[in-house]
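Target protein
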Amino acid sequence: MDSAIVNNLRPEFAPVAVVWSDTVPSDAFQFKKGRFGCTLFLFSEASRRGRVAAGSRESVMCPGGRAALGFGVDFDSSEAMLDQHAALFSRGLPSARDKAAYEKIMEDAPSNWHDMYAHGERMHSSGDMAREWILHELPRYDIPHEYVLFKPLSLTEADDNVRAVIFPVTPVELAGLITLAGSVMAGTDPVQVPKGADCMSLTAFAYAQGDASAPRAVLGMTGLDGREMMRKRFRDDAMTLTLPMPLFKSMEAEAGESIFQLSSWQTLLGH
């Protein structure tokens, strides 16, 4: 895909399309079945290494990663699972309603996860708040496709089922994209900054925005795990802005007569 946004923005890092698909390229990167891998790594492989990366129900072991990609949500498949994840997403053991069961899960987890289970991820201040988020605020998708592909935008074809485009951005690039998004949207809030794991901001929340009557961009990499990945594969000050496809198309149509043509933008780019 030849993108007007990319041609004008000239980003440091390659944008990545999120594609729903029933086929996967033979040379695509996938996690080995049965081995844990973070969805953020799939995205970074596409952006930093220029290769298609694929996730499926069988290859993504992390329940959060499967929920983020749209392969169903099982955080609340039972009361025990709900209690486990509500505690994990909040204060850990002190937030668990069934502390004995939670301690057993913690003991059986890999040793490098024990600290996370003990203290929680602190995305919510209480288990009750985490339960509310799981039950009522988490976007829920069980897509009718076998794969979600992270595909360099430059490699996408016209018939690809692109659901969103992820831009890994520097602060200046983020300012340009947010201004462009706001220029084609009514109101004063063109960006959602969702609460949840960083993989959710790349995909699930963007799916939900794409289905909304007035889709917004989704800011990502605001979590500690996301920041660690950005430090290793991008830059310490890099963020992500995911554009659901309806918004991306509106911004594409406007990019040729936008902030990007102003002398102030060229000055920021150093031209």
In short: Residues 4-65+142-269 form one domain. The first helix runs from residue 4 to 9.
